[in-house]
Amino acid sequence: MKSCIIYHSYSGVTRGIAEKINAACGGDLIEVKPKDNYSTLSAYSVGCIRARKEACDPISPDTIDVSLYDLIIIGTPVWAWKATPAINGAIVALKGCEGKNAVIFATCGSSAKDTLPIMKSALEKKGVRVSGEIVLNKSEISGNEKINDLITMVRAAADRV
What we know:
Helices cover 41% and strands 28% of the residues. By secondary structure, the protein is an alpha/beta fold. The radius of gyration is 14 Å and the shape is globular.
């Protein structure tokens, strides 16, 4: 079973969770970055406005071919209760994803609100089955319980492949 962990991380929190999944379960790490980086000011102004509109940033890599993977794991920070524009762009950039299983996660200060349902819907439109989803808020990121729940979810999804 081959998996990939696709993530965007502005502050490093989501990257840290992706690396913990990688250490526990394996898989290729694919960091998505906006082609035009956000400054601290623009992330909280322009970036949040774009997130609220569910906009897609041009990203690097331009396309993400997941045809060789059995499981896709996607993680995003939450900006204004939505996925970041870079992760929206990553979902659009997925190639070879039809029929694949996915686990999605979000990291946030307090509430992810619409983030995961919107991501799940976008993935399902591309033919991806989301078999697990979880939100990790600020207090849960520093502990291990929710991270272990996420790792268990990834392992269970891998077993179903």
